[in-house]
Design brief:
Length: 117
């Protein structure tokens, strides 16, 4: 049996762009992706703290150090520039693996979306 557990989380970053005319996904600064152990094309849940919206999409690698958090495609209708979001990924583990698993949780600067030193 496998259970779904939190794999990683980028807690409270600010949306810098919302591009409706795009195929879909969320573009995330590569530095944040690495810190949270997210891979390009990995499925993520994005939670909007302003309005409670929650979407499921996939990650596109953004320019390293840019602070980019861009909701693309239809998600741009539910998120706007300036919204604070939480980005979460999950993994499937056996109960034995899950007991010792430690998720990657990143708390960047909400104003710049850059990693705190």
């Amino acid at each position: 049996m496998l259970i779904g557990v939190l794999k990683s989380k980028i807690h409270c970053v600010t949306v810098t762009q919302a591009e409706l005319d795009y195929v879909g996904s969320i573009t995330i600064d590569e530095e944040l992706m690495e810190a949270a152990d997210l891979l390009e094309n990995e499925q993520v849940h994005v939670l909007n703290k302003r309005n409670g919206e929650r979407i499921i999409t996939y990650v596109i690698k953004g320019e390293r150090g840019s602070g980019t958090i861009c909701l693309n495609g239809p998600a741009a209708l539910k998120f706007k520039v300036g919204d604070v979001v939480i980005i979460i990924s999950y993994t499937w583990l056996t109960p034995e693996e899950a007991r010792n698993f430690k998720p990657k949780i990143v708390f960047p600067d909400t104003q710049t979306n850059r990693l705190l030193k």
